[in-house]
Every structure is written in structure tokens, then in C-alpha cells.
User: Fold this.
Amino acid sequence: MANEVKLTVTLGEALAARLNAAAAAQGWSAESLAADCIAQNLEVALRHRVLIERIEQIDAAILDMAQAVGELGVPSAGIDLDKICRFGKHADGSDLA
Assistant:
């Protein structure tokens, strides 16, 4: 199979004994149990990496939004804010609201 990756794993004596005991208790081979453990850990690592990438994308989007809001909040010399206000002014200059 072209998608297979072969690994050689060397375990210490104590860990190898625990692996063999756990595999025997389930009626599995030590190799299949080790392969399942590695596959599960790789899946968790991949999911973690995707989550970290998404968090970085969200952080970048929040930063972009904050910068846009900051730019919108800066008063511009070319806009007369009195002309875009919802509430007009009385003839004496006091607010209607």
C-alpha cells in the first residue's frame, strides 16, 4: 500500500512488559496495540494543530476588526459631523434631543 508508513519502535523493558500484558489481556498482539495507540495519538495531535491554526485565524480576524473600528473612530477633517447626526439643532444652536 502506497500510503503506509513503517516505523520501528524500541521500548524499554518495563514499558514493553506492560504493553505485552495489556495486549495479552485483550487477546491482541503487542504490535497491533502499539499501532492503535500511535494512531490515536497522531489523531489527537492533528486535531490540536487544526485548533491552534483556527485560533490564530480568529485572532488575526479580531485584530483586523479592531483596527477597522479604530480607523472608523478617528475623526476626519473632511466630514461635518453635524450634517450626519440624527438629531438636528434649534436655531439657537442647542440640540433638539
User: Anything to note?
Assistant: The first helix runs from residue 13 to 26. The chain is about 65% helix and 0% strand. The CA atoms of residues 10 and 97 lie 79 Å apart.
